[in-house]
Specification:
Elements: E1 5-11, E2 14-21, E3 25-30, H1 41-44, E4 51-56, H2 72-86, E5 91-96, H3 98-109, E6 114-120, H4 130-137, H5 143-157, H6 162-173, H7 180-184, H8 196-210, H9 213-218, E7 224-229, H10 237-245, E8 249-254, H11 266-278
Parallel strand pairs: 3-4, 3-5, 5-6, 6-7, 7-8
Antiparallel strand pairs: 1-2, 2-4
Helix pairs in contact: 2-3, 5-6
Length: about 280
């Protein structure tokens, strides 16, 4: 196994922070967000003895270029530029949460360069999952915490700044785990602030890209796997439908974990992830 190698890679109009480790099948991991930064080192450790794993901070967040343009086309082009930089003819593309859809959009645009597609705890392809997610999150909070969430949402609607956003993210963090104790024992990822303008721009473009996507999904015949924590407040119906729309798709519900399975019980995730990667060795 090789040591992790950090590198700043120049792409069209931006510079992206990257980290590479392992040997084997080339695999790129797309982190969640949008507008966030890479937090997938523990996920990498599950497969980097059989895969050469590339991680990166997406344009607009973390250690990469902050400036835009912030669009699906640009981020997909950035991923393709990374593939060319590392000289992989084809590679596995994977992502977590929002990053699952970035991986999907890349595979749709560059199916000839994609060996396989893996989506972990992403949403479905019908826009509007936020309301259901919020409804499932609220009962996982105390009465006092629920009141604070509602107050913070009012403040943010009125133009409140980063302290209110940070506190709201801290509260939602408690709801993303199957067991509250796991959330309390795991510090929230807070290394870099999230730019709300990046989030808003990408979410608007994200919604636009999902319109009429069914036909495109039906033509994507590469092996695809959707993994979903059974306690994720993002419901399973959407991800399951996505797997059914993909001709080469499969769906696996991961037991006893929420939105970040590797932070609760990585055993089942490790088995499924390794089995998927191993078929391309």
């Amino acid at each position: 196994m090789t040591a992790a190698r950090e590198q700043i890679v120049a792409v069209d109009g931006a510079a992206l922070w990257t980290c590479t480790s392992g040997r084997g099948v080339p695999l790129v991991l797309c982190h969640g967000g949008p507008g966030a930064y890479d937090n997938l080192a523990p996920l990498t450790a599950l497969v980097d003895d059989i895969a050469e794993v590339h991680r990166f901070d997406q344009r607009g967040g973390g250690r990469s270029t902050v400036g835009g343009p912030w669009s699906i086309e640009t981020l997909v082009a950035d991923v393709e530029a990374l593939r060319r930089h590392w000289a992989h003819e084809r590679w596995l593309v994977a992502g977590h949460s929002w990053g699952a859809h970035l991986a999907l959009f890349y595979a749709l645009e560059h199916s000839d360069r994609t060996l396989g597609l893996l989506m972990l705890n992403g949403p479905g392809v019908r826009w509007g999952w936020g309301g259901e997610r919020r409804a499932k999150r609220l009962p996982r909070l105390t009465t006092t915490e629920r009141a604070e969430v509602e107050a913070l949402e009012r403040e943010l609607a009125g133009g409140a700044g980063e302290p209110a956003r940070t506190r709201l993210r801290d509260l939602w963090w408690l709801t993303d785990f199957a067991e509250r104790a796991n959330a309390l024992n795991t510090p929230r990822f807070a290394g870099y602030p999230t730019n709300p303008d990046v989030v808003a721009a990408l979410e608007q473009d994200w919604e636009r890209h999902l319109h009429g996507i069914d036909e495109r999904l039906g033509r994507l015949t590469i092996p695809s796997l959707v993994l979903h924590g059974e306690a994720d407040p993002i419901g399973a119906a959407g991800p399951r439908e996505l797997a059914e729309l993909l001709p080469g798709g499969g769906f696996v519900s991961l037991r006893g974990v929420g939105h970040l399975p590797w932070l609760e019980d990585s055993a089942e995730l490790r088995r499924e992830l390794r089995a998927f990667v191993a078929q391309f060795r």
